[in-house]
Amino acid sequence: MYTHGACSNEGSTDHVTRGGYAFVWNESALGSHSAPLEKKGADGKVHPHTSNRAGLRAVIAALKFRVWWTEGWERIIITTDSEYVSKGATEGLRDWVGRNWHTPDGEQVTNRDLWTALSDILGSYADSGCEISFWIVPRKLNVLAANLATIAAKRTDGKIDYWNTLGELA
């Protein structure tokens, strides 16, 4: 499954920053989903849009989109060009939880609401016998998801509230 998060005008103080995310599980027209990043996060608070946040949201959306393990999926490989997402999921989560959501430098973990949501989802998949792996690829191997996320970041029809229903994109 290919995932990507994009953000337009990131770091700009003159323009509205908008994020978007996408995931692709089949390269057919019906095998992808993209959406603008919600204004509120999993914790109900408003968060600034960043490409890191959008990339993390893409993974959460991909894993929440359908109850993949009930469809016979025993292993899902999340393919991303985001080192932030891949290393955070495979190396960071355990360390951050062990340090009460702080980095080794004592700073609070950025995007904790989404990391917590991802941790919960990964636990659900593990409990259901479906293994999740992460694979970092160059952007040139993630073009479809990147293009869809970039288009989604430009949309203005995004939701305000974070959705969190397994097997349903509202």
Describe the structure.
The chain is built from 4 helices and 5 strands. It has a single domain, classed as Ribonuclease H-like superfamily/Ribonuclease H (Nucleotidyltransferase, domain 5, 2-Layer Sandwich), CATH 3.30.420.10. The strands form 2 sheets. The protein has a 3-stranded antiparallel β-sheet. A hairpin with a 7-residue loop joins strand 2 and strand 3. The mean pLDDT is 91. It starts with a strand and ends in a 16-residue tail after the last helix. It is of the alpha+beta class and 170 residues long. It is globular and about 45 Å long.
Any descriptors?
Nucleotidyltransferase, domain 5; two-stranded parallel sheet; 170 residues; globular; 4 helices; 3-stranded antiparallel β-sheet; alpha+beta; 5 strands
Shape designation: globular
Low-confidence stretches: none
Structural class, from helix and strand content?
A: alpha+beta
- The CATH homologous superfamily: Ribonuclease H-like superfamily/Ribonuclease H
CATH architecture annotation? 2-Layer Sandwich
Summed up, the helix count is: 4
- State the CATH topology: Nucleotidyltransferase, domain 5
Distance between the termini: 20 Å
Number of domains: 1
Helix content: 25-40%
Mean pLDDT: 91
Number of strands: 5
Top CATH class: Alpha Beta
Secondary-structure element series: EEEHEHHEH
> In percent terms, what proportion of residues is strand?
15-25%
Short description:
By secondary structure, the chain is an alpha+beta fold. The protein has four helices and five strands, in the order E-E-E-H-E-H-H-E-H.
